[in-house]
Amino acid sequence: MSASFDYRQVLSPSFVETGSYRGDGIAQALGAGFETVHSIEIADHWINHCRQRFAREIADGRLVLWQGDTLDVLPRVIAHLSRPATFWLDAHSHPHNTGTEKSAVNCPLYHELGAIAASPIRSHRVLIDDLRLITDPRSWGGHDVTFSGMLERLRAINSNYAFAFLDGLIEKDVLVARVETGMRTDQATLDAFLSDPLSQSIRSARSALACEVDPMSRTVFPRI
Ligand SMILES: C[S@@+](CC[C@H](N)C(=O)[O-])C[C@H]1O[C@@H](n2cnc3c(N)ncnc32)[C@H](O)[C@@H]1O
């Protein structure tokens, strides 16, 4: 799902997205001024859509679209990076999105964080979208990612990461890990997630929606 924050807050030479979908994240990253944007997508339909939508940027070399499963492709993209990058980790399966069933996992996040941890660059910025869903093991057909599991793996990349939260579909739906002078962890929000992954603000936002918005088709279906 596209973020509602300004991508210029997390500018780096390169932007690496997992899950291209309609290309809205790519458009935001190109607009924010990232020199190079890499985006990985498993579904043929969405890769073809993005190839058409961004034909000029692909020809210019500003955008590289990678077709395939982030499990296989992300380590290859990371091997291309020579400087700290901004990662936008946003790939996950959905029953209505043809193509995602090709992956062995519904939510590849732990594999992606492992691939980043294997990079010799320790100061990448890592953004993880959809906290309201990722903290719920029933999302996306079921998965084993937890909030504390994410933090543990991020700290394995860099034990000095500070954590902040940016707005996505709802308030504070994006976890940001970065090492920067003057950056401080938003400890209150972190503690709220740790003590109750579906913290009060997240719950109230979800109940305000009174439904789950399908991020693929943008149709709305009742929460079960
Ligand atoms: C929520 S959408 C991404 C939205 C996009 N990042 C944006 O900001 O507009 C998730 C996308 O991840 C893709 N996806 C799911 N599993 C994947 C995998 N294992 N590898 C690569 N892409 C995957 C889906 O096909 C879908 O297009």
UniProtKB/TrEMBL annotation:
Protein name: Class I SAM-dependent methyltransferase
Organism: Thiorhodovibrio winogradskyi
Superkingdom of the organism of origin: Bacteria
